[in-house]
Design brief:
single chain; 215 residues; alpha/beta; 8 strands; globular
């Protein structure tokens, strides 16, 4: 870690424990509008860690339903607002690892496929916005993860050698984005689906506490 000058974090599932929130928002919409019933395991295996556009394609390919993007966008945003994103909790040791990196003088960036409004709401509620030197959100890119563009944007902002930058992700989607951009990536996840997808590609840590011990 002594040669690392910057750490780039994913948001959902990495720093915030948001997947149950998203599942609870999406599943009633899918049942009401498309007669599709999913459980939380389905959510984690099929939808979690992906963009709205990816999930719309998944709905069309897997369930053969005609999904209007604008409609689903509006419905999910309304559901998020009604449920209150401020209820989303931090992943254990999220604040501790950010504080450690800040104390060590590392630059810290957030690279997420979520929108800036989500970042501001959740991290603002937990008073974590000040730990970050910059943010790359969905509005900032044309091609979200797994495309390397989000991480390439972050690397450009840092203006540091790639071998001095590491990413922290929780999904194969994020891992693919970071590594395609040419930087090393820690994966922190307890989800079996991610372990299966990343088997043989990288070591998977089970918690941010393990990452804190590693770095």
């Amino acid at each position: 870690m002594s040669t690392t000058k910057a750490v780039l974090f994913d948001l959902d599932g990495t720093l915030i424990d948001s997947e149950l929130f998203y599942f609870s928002s999406w599943s009633p919409i899918l049942k009401r509008e498309f007669a599709i019933e999913i459980d939380f395991k389905d959510w984690l295996n099929i939808f979690a860690g992906h963009t709205l556009d990816h999930n719309i394609s998944m709905l069309k390919d897997r369930w053969y339903v005609d999904v209007n993007r604008d409609f689903l966008w509006a419905e999910t945003r309304k559901s998020y607002a009604d449920a209150d994103m401020k209820t989303i909790q931090l992943m254990p040791f999220a604040k501790e690892i950010l504080q450690f990196l800040k104390n060590e003088g590392k630059q810290i960036g957030l690279v997420t496929s979520s929108y800036k409004s989500t970042v501001d709401t959740v991290l603002g509620h937990h008073q974590l916005l000040g730990y970050f030197d910059f943010f790359v959100t969905r509005e900032d890119v044309e091609s979200p993860k797994p495309d390397p563009e989000p991480y390439l944007k972050a690397i450009h902002k840092l203006n540091l050698p790639k071998d001095s930058i590491v990413a922290v992700e929780d999904t194969s989607t994020g891992f693919a984005s970071a590594t395609a951009a040419g930087i090393a990536c820690f994966v922190v996840s307890v989800q079996e689906s991610q372990h299966d997808r990343l088997s043989g590609k990288t070591e998977i840590l089970s918690s941010l506490e393990d990452l804190l011990k590693t770095i």
